[in-house]
Structures are given as C-alpha cells and as structure tokens.
Amino acid sequence: MKSIAHGALALLVTSAAFAVHAQTPVRIGFITTLSTPAGYIGEDERDGFMLAVREEGDKLGGVPVRVQIEDDALKPANAKQTADKMVQDGIRLFTGINFSNVLVAVAPTVLESGGTYVSLNAGPSTYAGKNCHPGYFSVAFQNDSYSDSAGIAANELGYKRMVIMAPNYQAGRDALNGFKSTFKGEVIAEIYTKLDQSDFSVELARVRELKPDAIFQFHPGGAGINLAKQYANSGLGASVPMLTPIYSMDRRMLAATGNAGNGYYVTASWSADLDNPENKRFVESFVKAYGRIPTDYAATSYDTARLIASALKAVGGDITGKTDQFRAALRKADFKSVRGKFRFANNQHPVQDWYLIRIEPDSTGKLAYRTIKPIARDHGDPHARDCRL
Fold first, then answer.
1. Which end of the chain lies in a sparser environment, N or C, as judged by fewer CB atoms within 10 Å?
2. How confident is the model at residue 195, as a pLDDT?
3. What would the pLDDT profile of 64-118 be if each residue is shown by its tens digit?
C-alpha cells in the first residue's frame, strides 16, 4: 500500500509539474521603433500584432504568450543591445523590427542563438538570397517587391524617363535596385538621401531641372512626410507625377500631409478594401479596438501573429525542443491572410499579389485610396533563386 501511495503521489506531482509547464507562456521579443518621427510605424505594428494576441485571450494558436515590447529608437546599436539581453534571458522567438538597417544588426544575434526571427515588415535582400537562413522568415515582403512592382506600374502608366530617389540604407538601395530591375524606360537620375533627412530642397531643385516624366521614391515615416509636403509646395506635383510604394504614403502619412498625396500612384500588397472575409473582419476589429483604420504595417503585423499562432499550435508551444518542427510549421503558412493568397517561396519570403492604387478624393472630397487593378500576380522576389533552403 505504501508503494502505491508513493506512486500515486509521484503521479500527482508529475501531472502538476506538466500542467505548470504547459501553461508557461512562450515569450516573444518584439523590438520596434516607437519613438522618433517614425514611431507611428512601430505603434501600428505593435497594435496589429497585439490585436491577434488579445483576440485569443493572450494566446496565439491556443498557446499562452508573453510579448516583451521594446523601443529601438531607430538605432541599430540599441536594437542589438536589447536583443542580446533578451537572448541571454532565454527568449528564442523575435519579431517587430521595421527598418532593414536595424534588422540586419539584430538577426545574427537571434539566429546564432538558435532562435527564430519572423519579420513583420523589413525584408532586406541580406537574408533572401544565398544567405537565406532556416530560422529567418519575412511575412510582409522582400524589399525589392514593393519597388519592382512599381517598375511594372511605371511601364503600364507610360513613363519613359524617371528620377528615382531613396535613403542610402539597405531598404533604400533594395528599393531602387528593385525598381530598375523591371522599369523599361530610362533612369535619368538615381538620388540617395540621408535616412533622417528633413530638407529636400536640393533634390527637388534637381528634379525640376531634369524634367522627368515622373518620380519614383521610397521614404517611409517622417522623412516621407517632409518630402511630400515640400514636393507639393514646390509645385512639382502639377507637372511631375509621383509613384511610390504604399510605405511612402501610408494612411497616417496621408493624414499628416494634407492634400500633398493627391494624385499619387502607389503599389501595395494589401488595402483596407480588399474583398475577403479575413480582411473585412480584421479591419472591423482594428477600428473597434483602436478607433482608426489600419495601415499596411498593421495588416502584415496581424498576419505575422496569425502565422506564428499556426506554428505554435502545431508544436504545442514547444519552440525550443521542437525548433525544426516549429520552423516547418511556419513554412506551411497554414493561416488565412488578410491579403488573400499567401505562401512562402523557398527562401521563406512571400509570394503574393500586388496592386496599383491611386490616391484621389472620394465622394465626400476626402483623399482616399482607390484600387485600380492587380499589377503583379503571385509575385515573389528575384533573390529566391540563389537560396538553397
């Protein structure tokens, strides 16, 4: 009887320990830009991701999660230091970074620790080609894709001579290279600006002298707001059309620039008016939770959370003991995207549709996004061919 009692007690202790272990939240390191003029981007990414977490009652895929959110202040060194501390503290799943120069500073820390990084926005070419990594996933795009789709749009819009302009950092260089890879006309000037630049008078004076058919530019956040205002005030908008990725005139930028975005052509993989059930539910839920219409940043962040949820469910939340299985589940992309069709290419970057959108007054006279047509179907990135995954 004594051995039976001891056995029963051991079973109870083991069961209790298992229950405690099963309920231990999976920690997610969420490093993003919450300060600086680009801070609104991080806010939208945080809010989109956390909406999915809160919809499940602080769970993803039925697994309890604890999201540790930190501000990188748009400084790679800050982000790396934060990631180092998180890794030392045992965190092995990361997301949140918006800017590519920050991401390339953090990713090695995460991947060398055996962790997994799931990018909700930045898509530098660094991890898309020959240096692709089984622990690195990009959910929003690869940087070339939002610009090579703009090159396709420029061709269809009939532009022959263009000035292209972007900040001199990884995403800016990727953007201009992507545009040049599909544009069939002549690039008469390739202008690089500073990442934190606020005065574009010199660049706009040069554009005026060159008299291009149009400008393609990539300047997200505060720099893009300043550029748009100065472009409008210069009067160039009347003679030189503007073509950008949505990230250079997102919904928050449009509100901050008054009428400056009127007439812009933009390319995007998502729009609030996309007609699918998941998107309609997401937009409604986001507006109810935060009192504003979501941006593309929020949409891809929500998708990132839902992707992670699908993989956590597949491994029961065990991302360290079942790292390979967790990554395999991520690759399956077994979730319903707010963008509609979504899958990963072999380099673990998206294959998805891209759309041409025009910013123009709606029936009330307020500037709005009007989706014109799909511009690239099932569109991946050119670096995938060099990936050996």
1. N
2. 87
3. 999 999 999 999 999 999 999 999 999 999 999 999 999 999 999 999 999 999 9
Q: What domains sit in the chain, N to C, each tagged with a CATH number?
A: 8-141+275-344 (3.40.50.2300), 144-268+354-386 (3.40.50.2300)
Q: Are strands 367-379 and 350-361 parallel, antiparallel or unpaired?
A: antiparallel
Phi, then psi, of 51 in degrees rounded to 5: -60, -45
How big is the CA angle at 176 (ends 353 and 381), to the nearest 5 degrees?
35
CA atoms within 13 Å, Cβ hemisphere of 383: 24
Q: Which residues pair with 186 in a beta bridge?
A: 161
pTM (predicted TM-score) = 0.89
Token code pair at residue 273? 């008016």
What is the Cα–Cα distance from 332 to 310, expressed in whole angstroms? 9
pLDDT at 377 over 50: yes
Instruction: Give the separation between CA 204 and CA 368, rounded to whole angstroms.
Output: 25
Token output for 373: 């047509």
